[in-house]
Amino acid sequence: MEEKDIKKIEKIVGYTFKDKSLLQRALTHGSASKNALENYQSLEFLGDSILDFIVAKRLIEINPNAHEGALTRIRATIVSKEPLAEEVKKLGLENYLIVGKGENVAYISSQAKIMSDLFESMIAAIYLDSKSIDVAEKFILSKLADLFNGKCKHFGEDDYKSRLNEFASRNDVSVSYSEVERTGPAHNPTFVVEVKINTFTAGVGKGKSKREAEQNAAKVALEGVMKK
After folding, report:
1. Which of 20, 28, 25 is nearest to 4 (CA)?
2. Residue 111 is inside which H or E element, if any?
3. CB atoms within 10 A of CB 89
4. So which residues are the catalytic ones?
5. Which residues contact 62 (CB under 8 A, 6 or more apart)?
6. CA gap 167, 39 in Å, rounded
7. How far apart are CA 57 and CA 210, in angstroms?
């Protein structure tokens, strides 16, 4: 890899590598080298674990009272391959992917799994080079800031439905929601939603959106089942 490309990549990721070979390895696809010490496969494994930890840590910092179910679900959406692949494309890192001779670069770069692996391998490379989880965390949070803001916008709302779903799973019952009424003008309606546990109406909630009404209904249902 040419020095000018290395400098461009370091500018993109916001980190200057002491060991440039780690950066090159983080961008080397398995088709370019079958040696695990020369491609990004083992780096991706490490980066995946670091990403899970940092995202979990950040979610708890944002809402320390959030229920485990909500935390798990939101973390899963943040670390899934599609948003990570989108971030790689946004940064332009796919342009520096090193592939085997004769491989279809355009096809490989279009694969979300490969692009998300690239993001995770870069996390590991930064961590190993800096020997600092804080530096890796800075990279992750700076690149995924918009994703955190979007997914955590309704953090508190999501908790009641998640908790009710967990209750249903533990007790082998079903949960269903249905709109029973809509009042007010068309441009500013109020929704009324009921939630049933099996066939029993466990709660009714109102809200300015169906989402809000469902959360309020789930809250009522949870309060009811917790009393029993």
Report:
1. 20
2. none
3. 15
4. 48, 120
5. 148, 152, 155
6. 44
7. 31
With residue 150 as reference, give the H or E element that holds it.
helix 145-151
User: What is the DSSP secondary structure assignment for residue 94, as one 8-state letter?
Assistant: G
Cα–Cα–Cα angle for 123, 134, 85, rounded to 5 degrees: 25
Which tokens in the block code for residue 67?
Answer: 């229920």
Give 104's Cβ-side CA count (13 Å radius).
5
pLDDT at residue 151 greater than cutoff 70: no
Q: Do 81 and 112 meet the contact criterion of CB atoms below 8 Å apart?
A: yes
Other C-beta atoms lying within 10 Å of the C-beta of residue 10: 14
**Six-digit token pair at 170?**
């533990």
- pLDDT tens-digit readout, 72-131: 888 888 898 999 999 999 999 999 999 999 888 889 988 999 999 999 999 999 999 999
For residue 162, count other CB atoms closer than 10 A to its CB: 20
Structure tokens at 169: 């799973």
* 144, two tokens: 């995924």
Report the 10 Å Cβ neighbour count for 145. Answer: 10
Ordered domains of the chain (ranges, CATH) = 3-149 (1.10.1520.10), 160-226 (3.30.160.20)
How far apart, in whole angstroms, are the C-alpha atoms of residue 210 and residue 177? 10
Q: How far apart, in whole angstroms, are the C-alpha atoms of residue 92 and residue 5?
A: 12
Q: How far is CA 119 from CA 15, 37, 93, 149, 228, in A?
A: 14, 18, 9, 19, 47
